[in-house]
Amino acid sequence: MGAPKTLAEVLAALPEEERIILTLAYLRGMSAVEIATLLGVPPKSVEAVIASGKARLTAELGI
Questions:
Q1: Which GO terms describe its molecular function (predicted)?
Q2: Using one digit for the tens of pLDDT, what is the confidence trace for 4-60?
Q3: What torsion, rounded to 10 degrees, do the Cα atoms 50, 15, 12, 22 define?
């Protein structure tokens, strides 16, 4: 078993769109609507990426 991954390592391994959305949501504190407006995508799509990304981060970090 290798060393635990850091948040930066896990984020870096994500697809670019997912990484951007999660960064805007969690590190910049933007809402799904704000992110959707900025990126020109539907808010429901942003919400789905946030939900799946959060699950992925939780699993990868073991928390």
A1: DNA binding; sigma factor activity
A2: 688 899 999 999 999 999 999 999 999 999 999 999 999 999 999 999 999 998 998
A3: -20
